[in-house]
């Protein structure tokens, strides 16, 4: 029955999130146009990286099902429970996945089933109890990336030349740090509102600083980046210099540079560039030079900029929380590597 169902439905499910008209109104030109519009909105419901990850999740699960002599449709909580168990304790030389990755895989399957018109109940006992057991047995504290502190950041920026690439990369480091930005937020910025369809926000440069309007995971939010105390440390001045010498007045803020280094191109940078930039400048600046290069590279990532701001900013916690766009203070505290955990001593406050 499952194989017949798969054969009947697979041809209709090639496109994730496909939206079609009911058969009795198919062929209406006006409605066909709206279908295309609705598909565009459906694709915009999640980021490109998330959609790519969900597609890989479905491909992996489908292949696993085929190897077990079954199919992925319709959803079977029993088979999904076995799949999760296999991810946590695989046979052979296949490495076990982390608990967070397994949880993400399950989210990917839930999303994929929804696109195909099915509901996957994560609370079903065959799924929930297996996942709870995996978390209880294999869960580990999250591995946090090292924070890039202010003195480290300036040393990293000083390794960059004052050519076009150097101006761009210096602006990326300083703006990402001062704004507490994710790498995806940095590269998704446009010069103005509605410059490009794939924009994730835009900038407004003012006398006292720059206002960033970001389309974040939880909705639109504004981030204020004030001017620094000197030309060397000012993220807004670094941004202005890059835009001026790159002659960028429209479209993506951070773009590729031609091979000869003399011209800014139209292609938007990817978030991977930010990660590579951080790792390269960490090595060049000699940050944690007491460790082997491999360990140093593993310690730092794009999140190191956000952690650096949270750890270095001498400001009230609620201001840091707002800058990072966190919904809770507890999440902000996870980014604060140098937080004084015993600043408030409730033992003494209770009279002991």
SSE diagram, text form:
Blueprint: H1 2-9, H2 29-43, H3 48-67, H4 77-88, H5 99-115, H6 125-138, H7 150-158, H8 164-179, H9 183-187, E1 189-190, E2 201-205, E3 209-216, E4 219-226, H10 235-246, E5 255-257, E6 264-268, H11 271-285, H12 293-299, H13 303-312, H14 317-324, H15 329-335, H16 346-349
Parallel strand pairs: 1-2
Antiparallel strand pairs: 2-3, 3-4, 5-6
Helix pairs in contact: 3-5, 4-6, 7-8, 7-11, 8-10, 8-13, 13-15, 14-15
Find the count of extended strands (DSSP E, 2+ residues). 6
**Shape, principal axes of CA atoms:** globular
Task: Return Rg in Å.
Answer: 24 Å
β-sheet strand percentage = 5-15%
Decide which structural class fits the backbone: alpha+beta
**Tally of DSSP helical segments:** 16
Salient structural properties:
352 residues, alpha+beta, four-stranded mixed sheet, 16 helices, globular, disordered N terminus
Structural features, described:
This protein has 352 residues and is of the alpha+beta class. It is 51% helix and 9% strand. It is built from 16 helices and 6 strands. It has a 4-stranded mixed sheet with strand order 1-2-3-4. Strands 5-6 form a two-stranded antiparallel sheet. β5 and β6 form a beta hairpin. The N and C termini lie far apart (69 Å). Residues 1-17 have low confidence and may be disordered.
